[in-house]
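Troubleshooting entry. The earlier prediction with iron/sulfur cluster gave an output that would not parse, so I re-checked the input for stray whitespace and re-submitted. Clean input:
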Amino acid sequence: MWGIIINRFKQGFRTTLSYPKEVPSFPQRFRGKPVLNNTADTPCPINKSKDPLGAVASGKKLTLDMGKCLFNEDLKAICPKGILTYSQDHRLAVSKKKDLILQGEEVKLARALNEKTRKIFGRSLKLREVCAGSCSGCDAEIQAMGNIVFDLSRFGIQFVASPRHADGLMITGPVTKNMELALKKTYEAVPHPKIVIAVGACAINGGPFQGGRDVHDGVDGLIPVDLYIPGCPPHPLTILDGLLRLLGKLENKENNFR
Ligand code: SF4
């Protein structure tokens, strides 16, 4: 017992209470928003073994689909050095799928919900999480948002057990065929107005399971999505940033986190 108390004193204060005013620094190995150097003439060759989802496309301009990006080092390696890098910017969530396609540095970050819906959800948002065939990586990051570091509930956002008590769904995984009916029924059980959040490459496009016989390649072919949060898995602060933008609490914060 004394050991636990002494350890708690040693650990000190951990909650990132200054967030979102100040964003905690990320470790050097963190891979945030990809940055494309589109001034370079050399195109990135197509490389199915290092970019199996086809995230990088070399047309007139080089593009990168963050929804298909697994944020791995292999992806960087297919382009000549310096053309594709990862920044320390954790802000990646968007409202429309087409906004996931990058041409340079700019990301059209998620827009706030309309005023009427914000009035309903702004101070208290209850979400039901649905794991629709994920590897559990994204679910672990969602769960981490509830720990003392991120302390999600201080923003009035909580997870609930029943969709009937929820204002929306947070979905992970590509949606396996086995989960299709369960997901649709869960969606129908949430009262109007409701929101749907797709977390991770799988929920957006199928991720590493894309094209699989028993999966749906993402949520939006089955139910409408209001917020896309890319990553494999996304960092808890990336998810939190998306939620706060949706609720209109971060709209004007355009700090540079590079
Ligand atoms: S996006 Fe990555 S971490 Fe998330 S469920 Fe899919 S494979 Fe797992």
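This one parsed fine. The first helix runs from residue 2 to 11.
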